[in-house]
Automatic annotation (TrEMBL):
Residues 68-594 form the FAD-dependent oxidoreductase 2 FAD-binding domain. Residues 1-26 are annotated as: Disordered. Keywords: Flavoprotein, Oxidoreductase. One of its GO terms (molecular function) is steroid dehydrogenase activity, acting on the CH-CH group of donors. This is FAD-binding dehydrogenase. Residues 1-17 have a biased composition (Basic residues). InterPro entries: FAD-dep_OxRdtase_2_FAD-bd, FAD/NAD-bd_sf, KsdD_DH, Succ_DH/fumarate_Rdtase_cat_sf. It comes from Agromyces bracchium.
């Protein structure tokens, strides 16, 4: 049975809105209406400083600034920078091209996974971690090999120390709590010195992405009430204002109001202009994942031909425009060819944004086949090596691939990345959480199984293979080969010792208490009728993160082509390659993106506050 076709829709679904409530945010997704913009101590004129007529001579000396900082982007990194500035009593204006409903940016949609080293949660599960082991993993994963990696390396060292030290207590102090079972993301390429996490480190925030945002939105709101923070939505920055070599403000277009709900694409109708000035401008505009043209043009040769078809794992506002704007004002962009896209994307049957895809966070047991039906080689098992798999698939010349699994595997091993796909964790709903731990697949996974266009569910292997053929172009898929592989793999399950390295990996994973409890199914025959029905999932490439960006020093000051800070300009979060223009190098250990927003946003806020 192949799932029903996705329904397009303009508004986010009610469940997503309810989740806004559950984390103490308004139904309009975490913010009050636009009325609050009036009547605060900050300027009441929506335009800020009037735009100078380009035909008149340059303006006289800058008028006293009304703000200490302009922050471009109301995502997590911008909000963290704003919170630090509020703590220091500074006046901040946050501008965002999206409506108020989307405050929080991508982080709201995120799973809220955070990379921590040697935490009490890890220790409680018997995981022994250390800064040395994490550094080994990070450097093996990053593969830094360029001159422009200098700042990325320094940020990596600083971030590792943060993740092993102050990060957890700083977040706990802000009210964040973690789900007690730690995930084991990116299990690696199979060698101690290479890519991957040697141990589980993916700490899921209780409340997922909205839970991570909550304290920073609250701080910005408190700042707003105190007259320190001004929020300007539907303000799109098109240009940085540069005077005497220093960035002193931003200029751009005021966009027409749009009542779209969170994440839904909005109009780009220009209704006016604006200019805002401050001695510090922070670029917190995110990456390029929503702009497939930019992704394709930056696609590196080592990943093969850019995919003809991709799903979007991020909303359309992740458009990458600000990077070019910052570059035009002297900032140095580096590592644009380093990106983090997933190979386990599925078409959202209930999309919020265009080409909306969801990433499966897979446990290790599903069999993985390329578009022709060849099994992926060891150690390209589900959840082991994202970019290794992407590179391998690129070499096959086909963008999609297949998971083949059982009902027993989907129930225990499929999680879907995204706050709205995990209502139990996002809403901190213990009753729903108990359902996850019980029998049956979690509700959102079951919904995909029933309605997703990429799912085939069948009682017998011939029926399953028929369904897979129907979803394959031409006669590309060699289903006889899949059958041979499944039967052979099943013979290997019968005894304790196996030459099938995936089975060895599955048995190894179950030595970890967390995996045994909720993430890894006991090894069983795929063709065991008691484990059925059989399931096949067609997987697509899903765009997500940019690993490169604006090069910054450890204060998040943007550096110019000469390596010297551009006066007045800062960059944070994904726009800064999460620090230094590329803290991850070529690959990531996961949970390091939200963490990178926290760390770089905090650094910028503190540096600006310190003057
Ligand atoms: C579904 C999903 C799951 C994820 N899960 C995880 C996870 O578990 N762990 C993890 O570490 N990471 C995760 N991530 C990644 C992480 O959420 C993002 O990398 C991070 O939130 C990016 O934050 P940011 O502040 O850099 O940018 P964004 O959140 O993209 O915010 C940028 C803001 O800038 C605005 N903007 C852009 N250009 C302009 C302009 N010219 N003028 C005005 N405004 C502008 C945008 O409208 C937007 O609001 C996930 C992401 C998604 C989408």
């Amino acid at each position: 049975m192949v799932g029903a076709h996705a329904r397009g829709r303009r508004h986010a679904r009610p469940a997503a809105r309810r989740r806004g409530d559950a984390v103490g945010l308004s139904p309009a997704c975490g913010v009050r209406d636009g009325e609050h913009l009036r009547g605060v101590a900050a300027p009441a004129r929506d335009e800020g400083v009037p735009v100078a007529d380009p035909t008149t001579p340059p303006a006289a000396p800058a008028a006293p600034t009304e703000f200490d900082a302009v922050i471009v982007g109301g995502g997590l990194s911008g909000l963290v920078a704003a919170s630090e500035l509020v703590d220091a009593g500074k006046r901040v204006v946050i501008v965002d091209q999206e409506p108020e409903a989307s405050l929080g940016g991508q982080a709201w949609w995120s799973f809220g996974g955070l990379f921590l080293i040697d935490s009490p949660e890890q220790r409680r599960l018997g995981v022994r971690d250390s800064l040395e082991l994490a550094r080994q993993d990070w450097l093996g994963t990053a593969g830094f090999d360029r001159d422009e990696d200098e700042w990325g390396r320094r940020w990596a060292e600083a971030y590792l120390a943060f993740a092993a030290g102050e990060k957890r207590s700083w977040l706990r102090g802000k009210g964040l709590k973690f789900f007690p079972v730690i995930g084991w993301a990116e299990r690696g390429a199979g060698m101690a010195v290479g890519h991957g996490n040697s141990v589980p480190r993916f700490h899921i925030t209780w409340g997922t992405g909205p839970g991570v945002l909550e304290p920073f939105i609250a701080r910005a709101r408190a700042g707003e009430a105190a007259g320190l923070v001004t929020l300007r939505f539907r303000h799109r920055v098109d240009e940085l204002v540069v005077e005497d070599g220093a960035v002193v403000g931003v200029r751009g277009a005021r966009l027409a109001p749009d009542d779209a709900l969170r994440g839904v694409g909005t109009n780009r109708d220009v209704v006016g202009e604006f200019e805002l000035r401050a001695p510090a401008v922070v670029v917190a505009s995110g990456g390029i994942g929503g702009n497939h043209d930019l992704v394709r043009s930056a696609w590196p040769e080592r990943l093969g031909t850019p995919p003809a078809e991709m799903l979007s794992g991020v909303p359309a506002h992740v458009d990458g425009r600000m990077l070019g704007i910052a570059e035009a004002s002297g900032a140095r962009l580096v590592n644009g060819d380093r990106m983090w896209h997933y190979t386990e994307g599925i078409t959202n049957w209930d999309p919020v944004w265009a080409r909306h895809g969801i990433r499966i966070l897979p446990g290790p047991s599903s069999m993985w086949f390329d578009a022709t039906g060849a099994r992926l080689p060891a150690p390209l098992f589900p959840g082991f090596d994202t970019l290794g798999t992407l590179e391998h698939l690129a070499r096959t010349g086909h963008d999609h691939s297949w998971f083949v699994l059982t009902q027993r595997i989907i129930e225990k091993e499929f999680a879907l990345s995204g706050s709205e796909q995990n209502p139990d964790l996002t809403n901190k709903d213990l009753r729903l959480l108990a359902d996850r731990l019980g029998s049956g697949a979690p509700g959102p996974v079951e919904a995909f199984k029933q309605h997703g266009v990429d799912f085939v569910v069948a009682d017998t292997l011939p029926e399953l293979l028929d369904g897979m053929r129907r979803l394959s172009p031409g006669d590309l898929l060699d289903t006889e080969r899949i059958e041979r592989e499944v039967v052979a793999r099943d013979r290997e399950v019968e005894h304790e010792f196996s030459k099938d390295l995936q089975l060895t990996a599955v048995r190894g994973a179950r030595n970890y208490r967390g995996d045994k409890l909720i993430r890894v199914a006991p090894p069983h025959r795929i063709l065991d009728p008691k484990a059925g029905p059989l399931i096949a999932v067609k997987l697509h490439i899903l765009t997500r993160k940019s690993l490169g960006g604006i090069q910054t020093d450890l204060d998040s000051r943007a550096l110019g082509a000469d390596g010297v800070p551009v006066p007045g300009l800062y960059a944070v979060g994904e726009a800064a390659g999460f620090g230094g223009g590329g803290v991850h190098g070529y690959r990531a250990l996961e949970g390091t993106f939200l963490g990178g927003c926290l760390f770089t946003g905090r650094a910028a806020g503190r540096a600006i506050a310190a003057g």
